[in-house]
Write a structure and sequence with these properties.
This protein is α/β, with parallel strands linked by helices and 205 residues long. It has a single domain, classed as Flavodoxin domain (Rossmann fold, 3-Layer(aba) Sandwich). 43% of the residues lie in helices and 20% in strands. The protein is built from 8 helices and 7 strands, in the order E-H-E-H-H-E-H-E-E-E-H-H-E-H-H. The strands form 2 sheets. The protein has a 5-stranded parallel beta sheet, sandwiched between helices. Strands 4-5 form a two-stranded antiparallel ribbon. Strand 1, helix 1 and strand 2 (35-40) form a beta-alpha-beta unit. Helix 1 runs parallel beside helix 7. The radius of gyration is 17 Å and the shape is globular. The two termini are 18 Å apart.
């Protein structure tokens, strides 16, 4: 099984990148046949701007830009998609949001031709791992986590038919040790394919 981990943070020494690495280690250690590809959007200088070319592709009047088809091919190769990101302004960073806006395109992720929505990513399990700078009480008091699940889990992935299996919010201020958060990420990685083959299930138990 093959996982694509998409990391959105400009600092390679950030907690976000550390979580991505621990996730990858968990996946690789859960079965000898499991593989991981990491898409570091900042390092790869992915352009998140939704341009006139993207509008033309959305309307099916222009070809899909090459950088978008390359990202779609990455996802097509994957048996699971994992997004690792910090919470910025109660959502994902603009870099990751722009990646979704451009890559999860009409005709590939969904099809709304003829006035009937066709969800085209029903085969794809999605795992969301976000790190938060505010404490749990702040999220609970304002309903931020529920709002994020509505806009991201439902608004983005359910619209395309992709099933959100994991929606984890790792609260930095409430953690006594950052290693505890890294251990959670490792555990998510170990269990990513646990229900899909006996070897992974045994190692994740």
């Amino acid at each position: 099984m093959h996982a694509l981990i998409v990391v959105a943070h400009p600092n390679s020494n950030s907690l976000t990148h550390a979580l991505g690495r621990r996730l990858a280690e968990g996946i690789s250690g859960s079965g000898s046949l499991h593989t991981v590809e990491v898409a570091d959007l900042a390092a790869e200088q992915f352009d998140p701007r939704f341009t006139a070319a993207d509008v033309g592709a959305h309307l099916r009047r222009m070809p899909v830009p090459d950088d978008v088809t390359a990202e779609q091919a990455r996802i097509d190769r994957a048996d699971a998609l994992v997004l690792v990101y910090p919470v910025y302004w109660w959502s994902m960073p603009a870099l990751l949001k722009g990646w979704i806006e451009r890559v999860f395109a009409n005709g590939w992720a969904y099809d709304d031709a003829g006035g009937r929505l066709v969800k085209k990513l029903q085969r794809l399990p999605v795992h969301l791992v976000a790190s938060a700078g505010a404490d749990q009480r702040t999220y609970a008091r304002h309903g931020y986590f529920g709002a994020m699940k509505t806009q991201i889990d439902h608004g983005i992935f359910d619209y395309c038919g992709a099933r959100v299996v994991t929606s984890e919010l790792l609260i930095q201020p409430d953690a006594e040790d950052m290693n505890a958060l890294l251990d959670v990420a490792h555990g998510i990685g170990r269990k990513l394919f646990a229900g899909l083959d006996p070897e992974a299930a045994a190692k994740a138990a």
